[in-house]
Amino acid sequence: MLDLTYRPRRLRTTPAMRALVRETTLQTEDLVYPLFIVPGEGVREPIESLPGQYHLSVDEAVKTAKEAYELGVPGVEIFGLPTYKDEQGSSAWDMNQPVQQAIKAIREAVPNLIVISDVCLCQYTSTGHCGCVEDHEVLNDETLPLLVKVAVSHAKAGAHMVAPSDMMDGRVAVIREALDEEGFTNVSIMSYAAKYASAYYGPFRDAVHSAPEFGDRKGYQMDEANRLEAMREIELDIREGADIIMIKPALSYLDIVREARDNFDYPLAVYNVSGEYAMVKTAAKAGLVDEKRIVLETLLSMKRAGAKIIITYHALDVARWLQEK
């Protein structure tokens, strides 16, 4: 017998013992479920690039929101496809469009569910870019008033929280000012503070038909090589009035999540993005991984890195699995 004073394995002997000393936990209350809203009625159309996810008309989105709430998921984030597109993306602030109608309907049907709205222009512009375009350049300052219109329209529809994802400089400040001026002082801002120009977004762009008409988004989304820049971006958004900071994507940027947790005493969110989700689904379908185990392990890694909020397409499945446990 070895003469060992301390044996770490003593605390791994049974499930109860492991649970007793577990440092990090994943809870249903950590999750936010994305919804993709489309025009029409009675629409529940599978999204081929995101197995298990659907394009939903407003009435069907209400049903899914109720399901999420009943499973204990505290919030949903609303994305949408408009009925029309133009150069400015004016459908993004049109109160008669699916996103605004879905926000209103979900708030009325499930009043205790947190409704978060994505504030961007890429789904709504004819260029597929996140702002005003001139000579193939996305203009920063000219885009800000348009983002303000979007955020205010979502607040008027009933959103508890707006989430600007465009990565224009200064957008948190102008949105905060406009919300306050319109009397929406209690509408919070979850900023996509460090959003990288990632290859992991492919299935999402297919789902919302937002691939750029030309070029890419590297002129405004972050370079994946940069760590210190992310800290500067986060600090700027906090100064401008962000209530929650987000890092996107999650899985390949857990070092950024950890550093943000260590440096900023603010609620921290991550987006478990479409590419991360689709890879797991594809591998599970091929029988290469245990879907339940790998999803729970992956999301737990995000919590362990320091995230409190996880926006994930796995949310409903995870809620059911956690209830089983």
Describe the model.
With 325 residues, this protein is an alpha/beta fold. It is 38% helix and 18% strand. The protein has an eight-stranded parallel beta barrel, surrounded by nine helices. It has a two-stranded antiparallel ribbon with strand order 6-7. α2 packs across α3 and α4 packs across α5. The radius of gyration is 20 Å and the shape is globular. It starts with 14 loop residues before the first helix and ends with a helix. The mean pLDDT is 94.
Describe this protein with a few key phrases.
325 residues, alpha/beta, 8-stranded parallel beta barrel, two-stranded antiparallel ribbon, 11 helices, 38% helix, globular
Provide a brief overview of the structure.
The chain has about 325 residues and is an alpha/beta fold. Helices cover about 40% and strands about 20% of the residues. Helix 2 (about 60-70) packs across helix 3, helix 3 (about 100-110) packs parallel to helix 4 (about 145-155) and helix 8 (about 255-265) runs parallel beside helix 10.
